[in-house]
Protein backbone atom coordinates (compact mmCIF):
# COMPACT_ATOMS: atom_id res chain seq x y z
CA UNK A 1 0.00 0.00 0.00
CA UNK A 2 1.37 3.39 -0.99
CA UNK A 3 1.74 5.92 1.75
CA UNK A 4 0.66 9.36 0.67
CA UNK A 5 3.43 11.35 2.32
CA UNK A 6 1.76 14.60 1.19
CA UNK A 7 -1.31 13.66 3.18
CA UNK A 8 0.83 12.79 6.20
CA UNK A 9 2.48 16.21 5.90
CA UNK A 10 -0.91 17.93 5.61
CA UNK A 11 -2.05 16.20 8.79
CA UNK A 12 1.15 17.23 10.56
CA UNK A 13 0.62 20.86 9.53
CA UNK A 14 -2.98 20.73 10.69
CA UNK A 15 -2.19 19.36 14.15
CA UNK A 16 1.36 20.56 14.79
CA UNK A 17 0.45 23.29 17.27
CA UNK A 18 -1.94 21.10 19.28
CA UNK A 19 -1.01 19.73 22.67
CA UNK A 20 -1.62 16.14 21.59
CA UNK A 21 -0.40 16.61 18.03
CA UNK A 22 1.27 13.22 17.76
CA UNK A 23 -1.87 11.31 18.70
CA UNK A 24 -4.05 13.39 16.36
CA UNK A 25 -1.62 12.81 13.48
CA UNK A 26 -1.43 9.08 14.15
CA UNK A 27 -5.25 8.96 14.23
CA UNK A 28 -5.37 10.59 10.78
CA UNK A 29 -2.87 8.10 9.38
CA UNK A 30 -4.67 5.16 10.97
CA UNK A 31 -8.01 6.39 9.58
CA UNK A 32 -6.51 6.53 6.11
CA UNK A 33 -4.62 3.23 6.06
CA UNK A 34 -6.25 1.23 8.88
CA UNK A 35 -2.75 0.87 10.33
CA UNK A 36 0.42 2.94 10.75
CA UNK A 37 2.82 2.28 7.87
CA UNK A 38 6.54 2.57 8.77
CA UNK A 39 7.16 5.26 6.12
CA UNK A 40 4.44 7.42 7.65
CA UNK A 41 5.89 7.00 11.16
CA UNK A 42 9.33 8.03 9.90
CA UNK A 43 7.83 11.11 8.22
CA UNK A 44 6.03 12.06 11.43
CA UNK A 45 9.17 11.66 13.54
CA UNK A 46 11.19 13.77 11.09
CA UNK A 47 8.59 16.52 10.83
CA UNK A 48 7.95 16.79 14.55
CA UNK A 49 11.65 16.49 15.38
CA UNK A 50 11.12 13.61 17.79
CA UNK A 51 12.94 10.27 17.86
CA UNK A 52 11.23 7.51 15.87
CA UNK A 53 11.30 5.30 18.96
CA UNK A 54 9.04 7.83 20.76
CA UNK A 55 6.54 7.80 17.89
CA UNK A 56 6.54 3.99 17.93
CA UNK A 57 6.16 4.08 21.72
CA UNK A 58 2.93 6.07 21.43
CA UNK A 59 1.74 3.93 18.53
CA UNK A 60 2.17 0.72 20.54
CA UNK A 61 0.74 2.16 23.78
CA UNK A 62 -2.75 2.71 22.41
CA UNK A 63 -4.78 -0.32 21.40
CA UNK A 64 -6.55 1.71 18.71
CA UNK A 65 -3.32 1.92 16.72
CA UNK A 66 -1.88 -0.96 14.75
CA UNK A 67 1.61 -1.36 13.32
CA UNK A 68 0.50 -4.38 11.30
CA UNK A 69 -1.41 -3.93 8.05
CA UNK A 70 -5.10 -4.47 8.64
CA UNK A 71 -7.99 -5.15 6.36
CA UNK A 72 -10.36 -2.69 4.81
CA UNK A 73 -12.96 -3.78 7.37
CA UNK A 74 -12.30 -4.63 11.00
CA UNK A 75 -14.59 -7.32 12.41
CA UNK A 76 -14.55 -7.32 16.21
CA UNK A 77 -16.33 -10.12 18.05
CA UNK A 78 -17.06 -9.50 21.72
CA UNK A 79 -16.04 -12.33 24.04
CA UNK A 80 -16.84 -10.58 27.31
CA UNK A 81 -18.78 -12.57 29.90
CA UNK A 82 -22.27 -11.49 28.81
CA UNK A 83 -21.57 -12.12 25.12
CA UNK A 84 -19.65 -15.31 25.92
CA UNK A 85 -22.60 -16.96 27.64
CA UNK A 86 -24.90 -15.97 24.78
CA UNK A 87 -22.78 -17.63 22.13
CA UNK A 88 -19.87 -15.28 21.43
CA UNK A 89 -17.34 -18.11 20.94
CA UNK A 90 -19.59 -19.89 18.40
CA UNK A 91 -20.01 -16.63 16.50
CA UNK A 92 -16.25 -16.13 16.49
CA UNK A 93 -15.81 -19.69 15.16
CA UNK A 94 -18.24 -18.92 12.35
CA UNK A 95 -16.30 -15.78 11.37
CA UNK A 96 -13.05 -17.79 11.53
CA UNK A 97 -14.56 -20.43 9.26
CA UNK A 98 -16.08 -17.98 6.76
CA UNK A 99 -12.99 -15.78 6.56
CA UNK A 100 -10.42 -18.58 7.02
CA UNK A 101 -8.43 -16.49 9.48
CA UNK A 102 -7.80 -16.49 13.22
CA UNK A 103 -8.23 -13.45 15.47
CA UNK A 104 -5.48 -10.93 14.76
CA UNK A 105 -5.20 -12.04 11.13
CA UNK A 106 -6.24 -10.41 7.88
CA UNK A 107 -7.77 -12.18 4.89
CA UNK A 108 -5.33 -12.55 1.96
CA UNK A 109 -7.48 -10.19 -0.16
CA UNK A 110 -7.07 -7.48 2.48
CA UNK A 111 -10.83 -7.15 2.96
CA UNK A 112 -11.24 -8.21 6.60
CA UNK A 113 -9.27 -8.30 9.82
CA UNK A 114 -10.76 -10.40 12.59
CA UNK A 115 -10.36 -9.26 16.18
CA UNK A 116 -11.85 -9.97 19.59
CA UNK A 117 -12.57 -7.71 22.52
CA UNK A 118 -13.30 -8.37 26.20
CA UNK A 119 -16.40 -6.13 26.47
CA UNK A 120 -17.79 -3.30 24.40
CA UNK A 121 -19.87 -1.88 27.22
CA UNK A 122 -23.23 -2.70 25.62
CA UNK A 123 -23.82 -6.13 27.14
CA UNK A 124 -27.64 -5.80 26.98
CA UNK A 125 -27.57 -6.11 23.18
CA UNK A 126 -25.13 -9.04 23.14
CA UNK A 127 -23.80 -11.02 21.56
CA UNK A 128 -22.28 -8.03 19.82
CA UNK A 129 -20.14 -7.86 16.71
CA UNK A 130 -18.73 -4.56 15.48
CA UNK A 131 -17.69 -4.10 11.88
CA UNK A 132 -15.79 -0.86 11.46
CA UNK A 133 -18.13 1.40 13.48
CA UNK A 134 -21.38 -0.51 12.97
CA UNK A 135 -22.73 -2.42 15.96
CA UNK A 136 -24.55 -5.65 15.16
CA UNK A 137 -26.74 -6.54 18.11
CA UNK A 138 -28.07 -9.96 19.13
CA UNK A 139 -25.80 -11.63 16.60
CA UNK A 140 -26.18 -15.33 15.88
CA UNK A 141 -24.07 -17.73 13.83
CA UNK A 142 -26.77 -17.56 11.15
CA UNK A 143 -26.33 -13.81 10.79
CA UNK A 144 -22.58 -14.02 10.14
CA UNK A 145 -22.90 -14.57 6.41
CA UNK A 146 -25.28 -11.65 5.98
CA UNK A 147 -23.03 -9.36 8.01
CA UNK A 148 -20.02 -10.21 5.84
CA UNK A 149 -22.01 -9.76 2.64
CA UNK A 150 -22.83 -6.19 3.61
CA UNK A 151 -19.14 -5.30 3.64
CA UNK A 152 -17.68 -7.60 1.04
CA UNK A 153 -16.77 -5.91 -2.20
CA UNK A 154 -19.09 -6.97 -5.04
CA UNK A 155 -17.55 -9.58 -7.30
CA UNK A 156 -15.43 -11.21 -4.58
CA UNK A 157 -15.93 -14.88 -3.73
CA UNK A 158 -17.88 -15.53 -0.52
S1 LIG B 1 -19.73 -8.61 27.18
FE1 LIG B 1 -20.08 -8.08 25.11
S2 LIG B 1 -20.67 -6.01 25.25
FE2 LIG B 1 -20.22 -6.52 27.31
Provide a quick synopsis of the model.
The chain has 158 residues and is an alpha+beta fold.
Structural class: alpha+beta
Strand content: 5-15%
CA gyration radius, whole angstroms: 18 Å
Strand order of the largest sheet: 2-1-3-4
CATH superfamily of the largest domain: Glutaredoxin
CATH fold group of the largest domain: Glutaredoxin
Gross geometry? elongated
Number of domains: 2
**Associated small molecules:** FE2/S2 (inorganic) cluster
* Number of H- or I-type helical stretches: 7
Residue-averaged pLDDT, rounded?
90
How many E-type strands?
4
Q: Percentage of helical residues?
A: 40-55%
The separation of the N and C termini measures 24 Å
Please give the largest β-sheet. Answer: 4 strands, mixed
Q: Which stretches of 5+ consecutive residues score pLDDT under 50?
A: none
Note the topology.
Elements: H1 5-15, H2 21-33, H3 38-48, H4 52-61, E1 73-78, H5 81-85, H6 88-99, E2 112-117, E3 129-131, E4 134-136, H7 144-151
Parallel strand pairs: 1-2
Antiparallel strand pairs: 1-3, 3-4
The structure holds FE2/S2 (inorganic) cluster (FES).
Model description:
Strand 3 and strand 4 form a beta hairpin. A four-stranded mixed sheet has the order 2-1-3-4, with helices on one face. It folds into two domains: 57 residues, Arc Repressor Mutant, subunit A (Orthogonal Bundle); 79 residues, Glutaredoxin (3-Layer(aba) Sandwich). The chain has 158 residues and is of the alpha+beta class. It is built from seven helices and four strands; from the N terminus they run ααααβααβββα. FE2/S2 (inorganic) cluster binds next to helix 5.
